[in-house]
Design a protein that fits this description.
13 helices, globular, membrane, cell membrane, transmembrane, Integral membrane protein-like protein
């Protein structure tokens, strides 16, 4: 059994278990009845918003592809974005997207080094936006969430710290090559001491080579501030599209809620779910949604959750899986 298929089966299993558990707290027959009666117009708008997030990410990648000297058409980068979303969805902590994208580009004889630099620069821009959004989410929604859900809102702060820490280390790696080398050597020799890895010097050399390539890419990005600012703007719009999906899903079910309160609560859920190691944060995302949004959506919470999860997660698996099969077949032919 391939690793991809195994991860897919894990996703299906966790989804089934989660839905069974939630069904004890919610009437799913009623939820599906609400979905059947949903407004086609607002469901279509929800789909457009979800697809727009793909387009915005692909545009960001296109910007960094030019900076990295990687010549790739936008339509190919859009396809690659959706494939990346598929592999992110089926791997713990969303970690499988970039390696899969690099592997597909390498098969197309595109420079793996340039591809890595391009995707890492895009990741930095996105991580900056997530950190800023995290500040907004924690401060704007904390009082509401902590009041409705006791001390669970504290998890959002830990999620914010985690994402901020990732950004901090990325920026540090970009600025200080000497500090990066010291950190790499420390951890590699520590792992070697506990016999986790072999040939530590060889590992250090490979990692430092990748870090050096990353440093050059980031310096090039920072040397063109207007371009980097544009990438931040596109990443901001992408994030706005993603966290707005519950709003449009709720509108399809005839629910009218305060948009800014909703996206603030959605940010808190996003920060908490980012700490969950299951593929696509399965389980925590669904359960957290039911917990966080019941005060806003009431009896229709399960219906909104199912629509939200489809357009933010399962749509990535469906479209991304299809494109993965097509792209894999095209490389073999």
């Amino acid at each position: 059994m391939s690793k991809t298929l195994r991860n897919l089966l894990i996703v299906v299993l966790i989804t089934i278990i989660t839905l069974v558990i939630i069904s004890h707290f919610s009437d799913f027959k009623t939820a599906f009845a609400y979905i059947i009666q949903a407004s086609p117009f607002w469901v279509f708008i929800t789909f457009v918003v979800a697809a727009t997030a793909w387009v915005l990410e692909a545009l960001t990648v296109k910007i960094f592809s030019k900076l990295s000297g990687l010549h790739a058409k936008f339509i190919y980068l859009l396809k690659l974005t959706i494939i990346g979303a598929f592999f992110s969805a089926i791997t713990p902590f969303y970690t499988g997207g970039q390696p899969a994208q690099i592997a597909f580009m390498a098969k197309k004889r595109l420079s793996a080094g340039k591809a890595s630099a391009m995707l890492m620069a895009r990741f930095v821009a996105y991580q900056i936006v997530i950190t800023v959004f995290g500040v907004v989410g924690v401060f704007s929604a904390y009082s509401f969430v902590s009041k409705e859900i006791s001390n669970l809102a504290l998890l959002a702060i830990f999620g914010f710290i985690l994402n901020s820490g990732v950004l901090f280390f990325i920026i540090m790696f970009s600025i200080s090559a000497r500090t990066t080398e010291k950190i790499v050597r420390f951890f590699i020799f520590l792992l070697a001491r506990f016999r986790v890895i072999k040939n530590p010097e060889e590992k250090i050399e490979k990692i430092l080579f990748e870090v050096s390539r990353f440093n050059k890419s980031m310096k090039k990005s920072f040397e063109t501030p207007k371009t980097f600012l544009l990438s931040l703007t596109l990443s901001f719009l992408q994030m706005m599209a993603v966290i707005s999906i519950p709003y449009f899903a709720s509108r399809s079910l005839g629910i009218t809620v305060d948009y800014f309160q909703l996206i603030s609560v959605q940010l808190v859920l996003f920060l908490i779910a980012s700490m969950v190691p299951t593929p696509g944060a399965s389980g925590a995302s669904e359960g957290g949604f039911m917990l966080f949004f019941t005060p806003l959506f009431g009896a229709k919470t399960a219906a909104v959750m199912l629509l939200w999860r489809f357009f933010t997660y399962y749509m990535n698996i469906l479209f991304g899986g299809f494109l993965t099969v097509i792209e894999t077949h095209s490389h073999k032919s």
